[in-house]
## 1
Amino acid sequence: MKRNLIHSVLATAFIAGVTACQTTSNKLTLEHQGDTLTVVHIDHPAKYLILPIQETSNEAKVRLETGSAADCAMDVRLAVDSIDYYVPFALNGQNTVTIRRIGANALCWDSIRLSDTFDTANRDYYRPVYHHTPLYGWMNDPNGMVYKDGEYHLYFQYNPYGSKWGNMHWGHSVSRDLIHWEHLDPAIARDTLGHIFSGSTVVDKTNTAGYGANTMIALYTSASDEYGQIQCMAYSTDNGRTYTKYEKNPILTPFDGLKDFRDPKVFWYEPDKKWIMIVSADKNMRFYSSTDLKEWTYLSQFGEGYGAQPNQFECPDFIQLPVDGDKNNMKWVMIVNINPGCMFGGSATEYFVGTFDGKEFKCDTKPQVTKWLDYGKDHYAAVCISNTGDRTIALPWMSNWQYANITPIKQYRGANGLPRELSLYTKDGQTYVAANVVPEAQALRKESRTVDNFSLTDEYNVKQVTDGQNCAIELEMDITPSTAQTVGFDLMNAKGEKVKIYLDMQQKRIVMDRTESGIVELAGPNKGNYDVHVKETDDHRKTLSVNYQNDFALGTWAPLSLCEGKTYHLDIFVDKCSVEMFVDGGRIAMTNLVFPTEVYDSLRFFAEGGEAQVTHLNIHQLGL
Ligand code: FRU
């Protein structure tokens, strides 16, 4: 613990009966009032107060004082005895900030400073080359995604004040092609009603809410200990850059006082000319309807006992898709993100196929049938972009609540998986969702190499198509197992760290094994007590000290029975710390994080127990 001058001055001041102590630096005066309140006085406000962060510190309360009842404190892990990184705190022309719950002897007071700029140049080794990440801070669910006037809006659960979960805002990025993203300022900030949890955005084409035709309207959950989880609304008249919160929020509270009631997805239901909201309600999804987006009527609920157990439902979506491309045969698909319940532990995305009559959803399958949108361990909170016409495009968050807060990354935490186009296919009398990478991803290909006529025992070096620093590649190939029992490859580096991808024909599975992929003890070599954010708690802010088990070192697998042929087409995207695999046009999707300590630069193929063929091997170097 640091013992600095301020501390000793403060102690003397107390002895002398004085209650405040001031230090001045660079247009900024720190007035320590006791040991738990510091008032920061700023002579000439700059754009930001730059705050030093220590991830293991407790959260201090930092509040911009404007004199309004709407002033809201943010939870910031201010540095006590070491600094991990800095975050900017926007001053918006104000000159007073109060900081509570941190001692006057903490290290942060020495390096807190004013600045008109904040350097967002990348400092993280594992930052992906072509996946969307926030410039800094924490990101979880993509939410509120909508297409309007040529722009895809990606809003996301965002903490601008540190790279751990907290202070939920809607961060904001836009893209014209689903691949290149421009970072914008957060669109909706945490307020006195609570964190701004996940939700959705609609384009109000016919002005049902009264803010003008084509206004963008966001529906989200406000979450706080005081008011619980309640649904709120905000509208934007500047193409989604800023939102005005509805003055009569909330628009919907749970009729039974339910604690877990969140993540509203709203869509227009043309047959009844009304809006439908699907919202997660503990172990169910509830449906409501409205004509003006403000008054909501309860319709029905679905879910308890269905799919993987245990099943805390979160982040719903509800979409209609043609079966096998036949527009005369449409089915409804309920996307349900569950935490926990992933077949490999932690969080994952399942779905149910069925019918909807404007009031109730009926599932085609028995409660015990579980269908997964992705068979990896790092695919969560996947929902679709609204207003995309005939296309249905989903985007996941690429992490798992088991370890999302402790990945070996600092400046930012959280990336999105590549956008996936959803469609329905039938197999053995069942209807499944295929999730295939969007064709726009082909624009990432910078240099391509086709490899013909190689033997399965060759070690094929992919170094020529990496730049030596980044493994940002797409691998395409057709694998025909013929008589082999296993056939596949290791994507590896000189240290022998590898991701092993193979067909196991005895178990009839495709496997992605990351047990030897690099850093797999996420919490460090000695498993011990770590503060892990536990999502099952009521208010999402509690942390539990748990004996952290290694949930990372494992292989994930999917049943090959989802595919048709004797040859399997693999399309695999690697980007520094992630591997996404799409088999046979997305009949199987599998998304996993990996943390190699050196760049993967070679492919080593193998086949055991018989003959197998690998053909049409294409290696593309990818970049933006
Ligand atoms: C899913 C989730 C949502 C919630 C959000 C909070 O990951 O738990 O249910 O809205 O994260 O950040």
## 2
Amino acid sequence: MSEKIYIGVDLGGTTVKLGICTEEGELLHKFEGPTDAEQGPETVLNRINEYSRALVGNSSFSWDQVAGVGAGIPGFMDIAEGFVKLSPNFPGFVNVPVKKGLEERFGKPVKINNDANVAVLGEAWAGAGKGVSTLVCYTLGTGVGGGVIVDGRLCTGFAGMAGELGHMQIVPDLEAIQCGCGQYGCLETVSSATGIIRMATDAVERGDSTTLTELGSITAKDVFDAAKAGDEVACRIVNRAAYYLGRAMAAVAVVINPQRFIVGGGVSAAGDVLLDPVREVFKKYTTNKANEGVEIVRAQLGNSAGVVGAAGLMLRG
Ligand code: ZN
């Protein structure tokens, strides 16, 4: 076989996940091992090298077929130069030339990017965005992350802040609360799991009549389940989370006119009870030409998005 393959590395604080992808983004083989982050950057880079070689060794491919390696890494980095400037969960990762260090070990070209961008790239390349060249992803979890793909390429922006969609300040001043970033009224304060739980807790503490009162500690899933069962307070909370997400998408639509919005992360498991009101609000607040044919869909790759996107960095990053 002379087919080219790409290795994707999803570097987490405790586990490194790796995968082999084809040029089309099909994930063929997986491997994972401990990061050993506490032993410092040299050890982490050695682990990535060992695991990559084990991954290929256990597959039907040869090392010669590896066309490149991509790595998604949490933290702040100089993407073009391949330096990790700072990664809070990795002791000693301060101005580490990760790209160069890996290229020396692999003898192959390497690209790095931050883990959130990489997961978006994976979803765009081989998941819910397959075949679509301009799209926007929202990841609704503890916070709200995101990413923007224009003409098939990841947008990182002047200072790497492109795609920080959770910090679009969308909630009007009088209703806004402070976000973890220091600003007020960010999308993340209402449309994340944290935001949904806060709205539910507030409602319970206010004494609103809701089945959520019967629960000890409330999760975002509890709120969606209650909404599906017809609880009015839960419906109001879900609709508020959906409303601001739809408004945010409407703002994005006239900037880059994406063909598809992809919604992933734990909160997206709620499905249409969340996405139907998002679609409605989006349509209402977007001028016709910017919403015709535009789809709002759920992400497909789940936990594999990081590995697939990392493998795609060499082709699409
Ligand atoms: Zn913010």
